[in-house]
Structures are given as C-alpha cells and as structure tokens.
Automatic annotation (TrEMBL):
InterPro entries: Lysozyme-like_dom_sf, Transglycosylase_SLT_dom_1. CDD domains: LT_VirB1-like. It holds the Pfam family SLT. This is Transglycosylase SLT domain-containing protein. Belongs to the virb1 family. Residues 18-151 form the Transglycosylase SLT domain. SUPFAM superfamilies: Lysozyme-like.
Length: 236
C-alpha cells in the first residue's frame, strides 16, 4: 500500500497555517521537488533507496529502524533529515505529520533567507536559501542541480518563482536585510496555486506593460529574524 500525494489545495492550506513566514508557492515548489507531496516518503542517503509507505505508523517504524542502523534518512513531505530532528525538537514520527514538516521547513528557510534591496537581489537570496535547504551550503545546491530542479517544479506546479532570470548560476552572497512582499487584496486565496498563477500572470502582464522592470510575485511573504533553531538543513 502506498500513500497518495497530498492534494495541492490541502498543501496550500497547511502552508498558510503551519508555515506562515514563507509563501505557499515557495513551500510547494520545494515539496514537489523533495517528495512529490508524499507525506510518508523516506529517502535513505546511505543506500539511495526510497520508501513510499502507506501510513505514518509504517513510515515511523521504517525510519526508526534505518536510523538505529546508523543511516541518514530524509523524512516526510518536506524531507527533513534525521540528523536535524533533535535540533528542531522533533521525534521521528513528527516528521510524517505534514503540518509539522512544513513548519520545520519554514523555520529553516526563514532563518537562511537574507533578503535584498531589489527584486533581483531577493531572487538571488531565495536561490541561495534553496541551496542551503538542500545541502547546508550556499553554493552546492547550485552545482548539484537542486536549485534548477526547484525552478523546474515552480514552472510546472507553482510558477511564481522568477525562473527567467537565469539565476541557476552561483550568485554572489547577498547582504542580510529583511524584506516583506506587498499584499494584493484582489488576489485569490494563497492556497489556490492554480488561481494564483493565473491571477499573477494577468497582473504581471499589466504591470510590465506599464513598467517593464516591475517585480514578479515574491515567493517569500515575510523574511524573519527568528532565533535560529536550525539555520541550515543538513541533507547528507
């Protein structure tokens, strides 16, 4: 028995509730890349084998056995690494709760994201953050292709990531700065990634007709300076 992927609408609603510091589209792009929205997925970094379990109980039992054998495993919908669970205050079974997993990912992303003075700098900072989420390093997520994979997921699932900038090349490290994205009261609900994409596309067409350098929809709703519970996700 295999678990079904979490519907995108359900993921979007959980993202708003459980990871409010990060835009749902950002979390969805990463979740699509990491797990295909599968809440009970396990990836064994030692054997490179994936386990798609049917329930959270089965997933927790399998993960516990692998960890006891000394394996490094990535867990759940956001693929939180087993080495990071103590620092995040989580138990193995917690990692298979989609809300908890999204919340942990939100903390990691928010702590790593440094913002920027303009749209281009913010997009560079976002890609550096995505690299850190995968590798704990500001550059290795570019060289191993992970950032490009998240960009591809954004194109297919939640195309709010500005994928036309060609930022997959390793950017210079941006300077820390808090940045908040503007809120459009006419936009569809944040969980509605399909409606958001259509609305964003129409809005950006109008904006760019008036101002060719208008910014695309920001992926981070808010960048916080919260106390670092685990600033860099260790995936190896």
């Amino acid at each position: 028995m295999y678990a079904q992927p979490l519907p995108i609408k359900d993921f979007g609603e959980l993202a708003l509730k459980c990871g409010p510091n990060v835009a749902p589209v950002t979390l969805a792009s990463i979740a699509q890349t990491e797990s295909g929205f599968n809440p009970f997925l396990i990836h064994d970094n030692n054997t490179k084998k994936a386990f798609n379990l049917g329930t959270d109980v089965e997933a927790a039992e399998t993960a516990t056995s692998l960890i006891a054998a000394g394996h490094s495993v990535d867990l759940g919908i956001m693929q939180i690494n087993s080495h990071n669970l103590p620092a995040l205050g989580l138990k193995v079974q917690d990692a298979f709760d989609p809300c908890v997993s999204i919340g942990a990912a939100s903390i990691i992303l928010s702590d790593a994201y440094v913002g920027g003075e303009n749209h281009e700098a913010q997009q560079q900072a976002l890609r550096v953050t995505i690299s850190q989420y995968n590798t704990g390093d500001t550059q290795r997520g570019f060289t191993n292709g992970y950032v490009g994979k998240v960009e591809a997921s954004a194109r297919k699932v939640v195309p709010a990531l500005d994928v036309g900038m060609g930022q997959s090349d390793i950017p210079a490290a941006p300077q820390p700065q808090q940045v908040a994205a503007p809120v459009d009261p006419n936009a569809p609900p944040a969980w509605d990634v399909w409606g958001s994409f259509e609305y964003s596309t129409a809005s950006e067409t109008e904006k760019k007709a008036e101002n060719p350098r208008a910014s695309d929809a920001a992926l981070f709703v808010q960048a916080t300076n919260s106390s670092a519970i685990f600033p860099q996700l260790r995936k190896e």
